[in-house]
Amino acid sequence: MSRLNAETECIAQTSEFKKKGDYLLGGLFDHVRGTLHSNIPVAPLFMMDLIPMISYGASSSVFSRKQNFPSFLRTVHTNEDVIEIIWKLLKEFNWNWVAFLYIDDDYGRDGLNVFIKKIKDTEICMAFSCGLSKNTNYPKLFKQIESLRVKVMVVFTAEWTAEDLINSAIQQNVTNKVWIAVDAWSLHKGLPKKAGIRNIGTVLGIAEGKVTIPGFNDFIYSFKAQIQYENEEQDSFCNQMCNCSSLSAEDIITADPSFNFPVYSAVYAVAHALHAVLQCGADSCNKDIKVYPNLVLNELKKLNFTLLKQTVQFDKNGDPKFGSYDIVFWNEGGDAERIGSYTFHPKITHFKIDKSKIHWHGDKKEPESFSSEECPEGYMKKQEGFHKCSFSCKICPKGTYVNTTDPYNCISCKDTEWSKEGSTSCTARLLEYVSFSDPAAIVIMIGTVILLVLTVAISILFALNNNTPVVRSAGGPMCFLVLGCISLCSISVFFCFGKATTVFCMLRYFPVILFGSVCLACFAVRSFQIICIFKIFDKLPMLRSYWTKYYGSCLIICLVFFIQAAQLISGIIVSPPTPYPDTLSYSDRFILRCYILKNHKASSGSLSLLFLLLFLTFFFSYASKNLPKHYNEARALSFCMLHQILIWIIFATGYTLYHGKYLQVFSALATLLSLYSFLIKYFIPKCYIIIFKPEQNTQQYFQDLILTYSTQSPYSL
Fold first, then answer.
1. Which of 127, 349, 435, 579 is the most core-located residue (most Cβ within 10 A)?
2. d(Cα 130, Cα 171) in Å, to the nearest integer?
3. In this model, does residue 330 exceed pLDDT 50?
């Protein structure tokens, strides 16, 4: 009630000043460290008219909100700065399982909120938090902390709350803990000397850096010698009270020095701002200038002066960009020994600590505080329960790894990388392929060259004997188309070797599928013609007429060519056959494979047409098996197609079972063997007749064969 009366009187005084046309200037200086109550009720009154208010003790983060407190500045660091130092301290010692005990008021709750925000998305977990008050049940509190196996406690409280907490810890025989004290009680004079304080563990603290104020001691001694106490009514004016009658000069000098420099710099800040507004020189100021609060506020925001070797500046929120904190340790002598510091500069901060100065109480070794032990390298953390610090360890399987940036997931390696089980990184796979200099590749390419030579030789031989019965019965001009397609198919063999590229993938399959289809279409038409000549045309002369009139052979072959070409080209345009890494063959290597066509509809259509032609040719040629004994063209086609089917069945089986780098050698070999089967089973026998059996390459010989078959065949008329 007395505080409320004092504040009411202050409001009345403020109103009186306004009536006279004058304005309040300067700052309101807190007398309670960290409390909000001395500022929140009064601060809005100053904010309305932008009257500058400089605090040396209000550390709550709420005062950084300029939309609510536009003219509030301070020379003490905020709770955010204190929590930042606590966070660095926890990281320094790898303490990630902590309790946060705070005074149950606005100051403490602000500290809790700032701490929660700070540790979010970090390795630190808050295992437990509790607001402390006069009614706190400390025995129950310590039992909860013990049940959670928490070794480190951040105590964000005022002095009186810290006294109750530490005294209760001594009474309850709490041992082997680390207590992190904030600047409100880290320099407590009595607690470090209390009996049993070493039993509860080690106390580390954060304190305002001690700065010696020149002439301060002389001023106190002089003040105590000359002080004259005023009456009580004057003492309570605007809540500015100072009754120091019970304190000696030594008591004041040896008191907590935390506020020394904040108070000193606050006074100097106001003085410098007024000095600038009044345009003061070395001896005098401009008395004609009328001082308005906003003018002083603007100058305060722009301040940049050196005081006791520190540059006094404020940031955009009115918070200090200067000062320092000490990291202290309560040693065996009962003193708060400085073991480190955290220094603020306008642009950077600097944190350092000397661990060798800390003598851990209790079991004499650096404490550890974690919910779960750290996982070995190569193991991921599998969260169990609410806290991410509670986890089990699971080894990362082959092909994955775990790193420090994301310890909760095993990350898959790229297709071109590999890793062993329990890895922390991936290793680049070695690319393997059959080079052109490989012995298998050389043998197959030599075989392909021989095939081309044979094809050219057969073409020349057939061209020289173009009008003979053997060449005409083999298909006549169609033979040259087949031989040309065989030559073009052989191009694919050469691109089965070397490093796969998009162009290589196209040329590996495009020629053999397209020209192989044309080749099979020629054989299918030829086998159909044979069965028609001997078994169908005589019964259906109209079919023969239409077949001849509309060039049935050419029509079917061209149709197959254009359908297959359209499917292949559209598939390549839509999705080019880019190589993809095959990682199944080896753990540390990979092979570039080629999709026949990434467009599955186009590839299935192309292959379906190819195999349809193969089976049609086999069907027609097999249906003509009972033709003249020496007229073996149909039998040659039957054996040729049967070999084709066997070759590609064997290749498909091998392709399924084997995944090594020589798979492309098998592909090239299958292509080459299928092309050789065309030559050996169909063309070579005819070359043998032309060269070595010229008597069978006559018109009369063929007519005799057909006549003999016609008189013996049940199909003859």
1. 127
2. 19
3. yes
Quickly name the fold that domain 439-710 has.
Rhopdopsin 7-helix transmembrane proteins (1.20.1070)
Give percent above pLDDT 90 in the chain.
Answer: 22
Q: In what order do the strands lie in the sheet with 201-208?
A: 125-132, 97-103, 152-156, 177-181, 201-208, 324-330, 336-344, 349-353
- Distance, in Å, from the CA atom of 428 to the CA atom of 417, rounded to the nearest integer, reads 4
Residue-wise pLDDT tens digits, 341-362: 888 876 677 888 888 888 888 6
pLDDT band at 405 (very low <50, low <70, confident <90, very high): confident
Task: Please list, in sequence order, all residues whose beta carbon lies within 8 angstroms of the beta carbon of residue 536, skipping any fewer than 6 positions away.
Answer: 543
CB-based contacts of 284-292 (< 8 A; 24+ apart in sequence): 291/23, 291/25, 292/23
Nearest to 26 by CA among 73, 76, 95: 73
Provide the strand spans (E) within 390-536.
391-395, 400-403, 406-412, 417-418, 427-428, 430-432
Give the integer Cα–Cα distance in Å for 457 and 439: 27
Relative to beta strand 72-74, strand 53-55 is parallel
Distance of CA 585 to the CA centre of its chain: 28
**Which pair of tokens denotes residue 348?**
């950077």
Grouping H, G, I as helix, E, B as strand and the rest as coil, residue 334 is coil
Least Cα distance to 335 among 359, 354, 356 occurs for 359
Would you report the helix, strand and coil content of the chain in percent, each value rounded to 5? 50, 15, 35
Whether the predicted pLDDT of 658 surpasses 90: no
Alpha-carbon span 183 to 161, nearest angstrom: 13
CATH topology for 2-76+258-299 is Rossmann fold (3.40.50)
Q: What b/e readout covers 512-538, taking b as 16+ CB neighbours within 10 angstroms?
A: bbbbbbbbbbbbbbbbbbbbbebbbbe
d(CA 3, CA 363): 48
Give SS3 for 258.
Answer: helix
Please give the CATH topology (third level) of the domain spanning 79-211+324-357: Rossmann fold (3.40.50)
What own/partner pairs with CB < 8 Å and gap ≥ 24 does 411-416 have? 415/580, 415/581, 415/583, 415/590, 416/581, 416/590
Task: Return the ∠ at Cα 274 (arms to 49 and 217), rounded to 5°.
Answer: 115
Q: Is 217 exposed, middle or buried (0-12, 13-18, 19+ CB in 10 A)?
A: middle
Q: Is 489's pLDDT higher than 90? A: yes
* Nearest by Cα to 177 from 135, 216, 128: 128
First to last CA, the chain: 134
Across 263-318, the runs of DSSP E, i.e. the strands, are 305-307, 310-312
Taking only Cα atoms into account, the Rg of the chain, rounded to an integer number of angstroms, comes to 49
